[in-house]
Amino acid sequence: MFLVLLGVGFIFLYIGAELLVKSSSAIAVQHGVKKIVVGLTIVAMGTSLPEFVVSLVAALDRVDDVSIGNIVGSNIANILLILGLAALIHPIKIRRRIVILEMPVLIIITLLFIVFCWDQRLTPLEAGGQLVLFLIYMAYIISNRKIQKELELEQDLVTESKPLWVNIALIILGLAGLILGGRLTVRGAVELARLLNISEVVIGLTVVAIGTSLPELFTSIVAALRGEDEISIGNIIGSNLFNIAFILGVVPLISPLRVAYSIVRFDNWLMLAATLLLGLFTLMSYRDKNIMYLRRWMALIFVGTYIFFILNLVFRIV
């Protein structure tokens, strides 16, 4: 039964996110909102909607291990597994702006999150601090003309022209799909944990995290196959920022979260290590003032580290 719940839940999450993002983007563009603003908000956050809904539903149902584990596991999977697989397909070109702006912001917010989790709680005050930093970052990106001009060149946001009522109906359907998918996913995760007699935090870090990261997986791999490097890397870094700063900035405001000791002791540090490793690898591949690369041998290290992460969850090697 848990397989049905998880499978159907993931499908509803994916379809719901697609409907919500495309229809919201269409309405925004049709009403004069700049494409860059839409891209940095609705579209950028769209691939993280499944994580947001699952973490919120899990927190409201007091399944905190799934709520936190989903986010930490997704951020680990995004860098080590998804970006690793994408770079194995095609070495990823990374612009200097991402290394000097987005990466430091992601590292700082990740460090802040680790500090806040040290007492195994994430309080509304701590979450609010993360959320404020994220909003400041978004305001800077949207208001900075130089960055806007650069991103406009990279972005190709296509929206279909539909009547307003059709887009509103699709948004409602998308929200309904996300809510239903979130509930089914959380129920399936809890049933799986009980059936296998393993902790809910392990299920959150693995099955749920990978399931809610499917939009990032599809987006990054397709982008890598097409040679759209900026989409591939931007999707991952943007998603990780949104996951940790916005989702875990909003959810504890609604319901304070308890953080499992295993996450505080090991998984948070692996998330930070993966982020630092990504930054280090891009700096190591420095070629000129604007371009850096994530190469296949680096991708092998990422994927190998993720395999170790999964083995450690099962056998507790460390």
Describe the structure in your own words:
It contains 13 helices and 4 strands. Helices cover 81% and strands 4% of the residues. α4 (64-89) packs across α9. It is globular, with a radius of gyration of 19 Å. It has 318 residues and is mainly α. The strands form 2 sheets. A two-stranded antiparallel sheet has the order 1-4. The chain has one domain (2-315): NCX, central ion-binding region (A middle domain of Talin 1, Up-down Bundle). It has helices at 2-30, 35-46, 49-60, 64-89, 96-116, 124-143, 145-154, 164-196, 200-212, 214-225, 229-254, 261-284, 296-315; strands at 92-95, 121-122, 257-258, 291-294.
What is the CATH level 1 assignment? Mainly Alpha
The count of domains is 1
Number of strands: 4
Sheet with most strands: 2 strands, antiparallel
Q: Which bin fits the share of residues in helices?
A: over 70%
Helix-strand string:
HHHHEHEHHHHHHEHEH
For the structure shown, list the relevant keywords:
318 residues; mainly alpha; A middle domain of Talin 1; two-stranded antiparallel sheet; two-stranded antiparallel ribbon; 4 strands; 81% helix
Helix and strand arrangement:
Blueprint: H1 2-30, H2 35-46, H3 49-60, H4 64-89, E1 92-95, H5 96-116, E2 121-122, H6 124-143, H7 145-154, H8 164-196, H9 200-212, H10 214-225, H11 229-254, E3 257-258, H12 261-284, E4 291-294, H13 296-315
Antiparallel strand pairs: 1-4, 2-3
Helix pairs in contact: 1-2, 1-8, 3-4, 3-8, 3-11, 4-9, 4-10, 4-11, 4-12, 4-13, 5-6, 5-11, 5-12, 6-11, 8-9, 10-11
